[in-house]
Amino acid sequence: MDESNQEDANKPPDANSPEELKAPEETETGEKEIAHAIPVINETNTENTSQETEMEVHHHPQLEHKPKAWKEYLLEGLMIFVAVMMGFFAENIREGISNRAHVRELISQLDQDLSNDTAQLNVVYQGELKILDANDSLVDNLRNPEEKRNMATLQQWIIRSHDFWPFHPSTGAIAAIKNELHLKQFSSSKIIGLIAEYEKHIDLLRTVQEITLQYQRSYLDPFLLKHFTAASLDAAFKNSPDPKAEFRNLSAEDLTQLGSDMVLVRINTRELLTNNRRLLTDAVNLLQYIKTEYKPDKE
Q1: Under DSSP, is residue 55 helix (H, G, I), strand (E, B) or coil?
Q2: How far is Cα 18 from Cα 86, in angstroms, rounded to an integer?
Q3: Residue 100 vs residues 109, 189, 250, 294: alpha-carbon distances, Å
């Protein structure tokens, strides 16, 4: 018994045993200090708990949507339909305004072109009347006996028969309108037929003009080069004929042949005059139609 008590006395004291709890010490003031036990926080467990908290998934609550009434669907569909139709009508109105403005521009240009054409046709007609008068005088003079012929006058009639008055129509507006015939203002009007008639007679007049040039090269030019002297030819084209002008290398057969050639030239000149008046009638009819139908003067 003494040995066991001695072993217990030799063991180191246990820090947690109640015996080892120190008694409160007295201070100089006589008060006792009490040792408070401070709990130790495990930092590793705290970090793991924090990470688990951060990784939690938050689920949004599922909202319940109640089905709409059929009236609401009908109202929404009606509103969409009205919006689409309003956009369609607005686009049609915008396009209509744009087309009307474009038509006014084209008609205004056509009005100006036709006015220029009619003025030019009248000038050309007066010039071709003088050519026809020279053709008639030359043909009649060549039928006279040789002793009654005035050579200076004959030269003047030959030179005047050599004149040429081409007509150059203004086709800019017509070409532009033909490219826009799909427009309602043109497709439902008579302007298509009137333009077609006008262009047909323009082509016919051009054909006759080409024949005129061909006759000049085939009949008049060879005669001038063969039988006119340089001085008489120059004076004749300057409209200052030489009273003493004479032909060179001229025979009766040459004058007879010239008379036959001038009959063909005169026929062609008369055709030019006829086509000129026909074309003028077409231009006037087309001009009157656009003034009545589209009223370009009020724009």
Answers
A1: coil
A2: 96
A3: 14, 14, 67, 10
Which pTM value belongs to this model? 0.68
How many domains would you assign to the chain? 1
Q: How many helices (H) and strands (E) does the chain have?
A: 10, 2
What are the pLDDT digits (tens) for 169-214? 998 999 998 888 777 778 778 998 999 999 999 999 999 999 999 9
Q: Which of 159, 130, 124 is nearest to 241 (CA)?
A: 159
User: Would residue 43 count as lying in a domain?
Assistant: no
> Is 182 contained in some domain?
yes
Pairwise CA distance, residues 206 & 274, whole Å: 13
User: Each residue of 117-165: pLDDT tens digit?
Assistant: 999 999 999 999 999 999 999 999 998 887 777 787 888 899 999 999 9
The answer to whether 56 and 43 are in contact (CB under 8 A) is no
In the numeric block, which tokens belong to residue 146? 């040789």
